[in-house]
Amino acid sequence: MRFMTTLNYIDAVAREKSIRKAAEKLAITSTALNRRVLQIEDEIGQPLFERLASGVRLNTAGELFVQHIRTQKAELARVRSQIADLSGIRRGHVKIASGADTMRHFLPETVANYRNEHPAVTFDLFHKSGQEAERALRELEVDIAFIFEPIKSVDFQTMATARQQLHCIMSATHPLAKKEVLRLRDLAGQPAILPREDTGVRQLLNVGLIQRNLELGIIIESNDQEFVQNYLTQELVISFQIPIALPKSVAVENKGKNNIVARPVDLTDVPTGILHVGQLKGRVLPVAAAKFLDRTITNLSDRYGHNLDQ
Question: Domains of the chain, with CATH numbers?
Answer without folding.
Answer: 2-64 (1.10.10.10), 90-162+274-309 (3.40.190.10), 166-271 (3.40.190.290)
